[in-house]
User: Which sequence fits this backbone?
């Protein structure tokens, strides 16, 4: 009886022919060496570009940023409410500090900003946000908060402002002469 080949036994290696390969053309290497004059100029200019990024802001800007950061932190903390189950009250409870944050940011611009157009917009924001806070509280049957005058001159001078709810009927507010950040 002839012997059968064992499938699990060692196999003879299969000879393979080498595959010819063509050389791959390469692009010339980019020039990585810069002339010494360019390196010297780069060394001189780097501090002029990099150092201002790490420098402290001007004194007026530092005060503005500090006030703005404080207003934002207070707003975010005050908006973090425990839901009561009353959607309307929860909405007003979150929107009031949101609007108050906008008022405080606008007041910081009035204290530190120089652009007259932006200062007028900041004044409008203060009045609009006070009116919206009052309208929301009146809609819930709560008394309107007392309005506070906004400082309009550097140094904190504060002329009287329009009463918060005097210009808009209860539950409505007018944006005819103002720009709203919600539009």
Assistant:
């Amino acid at each position: 009886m002839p012997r059968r080949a064992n499938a699990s036994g060692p196999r003879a290696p299969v000879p393979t022919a080498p595959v010819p390969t063509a050389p791959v053309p390469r692009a010339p290497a980019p020039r990585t060496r810069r002339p010494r004059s360019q390196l010297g100029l780069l060394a001189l200019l780097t501090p002029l570009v990099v150092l201002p990024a790490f420098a402290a802001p001007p004194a007026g800007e530092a005060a503005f940023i500090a006030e703005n950061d404080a207003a934002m932190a207070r707003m975010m903390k005050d908006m973090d409410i425990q839901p009561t189950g009353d959607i309307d009250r929860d909405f007003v409870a979150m929107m009031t500090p949101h609007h108050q944050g906008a008022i405080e940011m606008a007041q910081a611009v009035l204290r530190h900003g120089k652009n007259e157009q932006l200062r007028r917009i900041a004044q409008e924001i203060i009045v609009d946000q006070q009116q919206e806070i009052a309208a929301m509280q009146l809609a819930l049957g709560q008394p309107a908060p007392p309005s506070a005058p906004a400082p309009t001159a550097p140094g904190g001078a504060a002329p009287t402002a329009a009463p918060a709810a005097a210009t808009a009927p209860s539950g409505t507010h007018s944006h005819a002469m103002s720009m709203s950040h919600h539009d």
Q: What stands out?
A: The longest helix spans residues 87-112. The two ends are 97 Å apart (CA to CA).
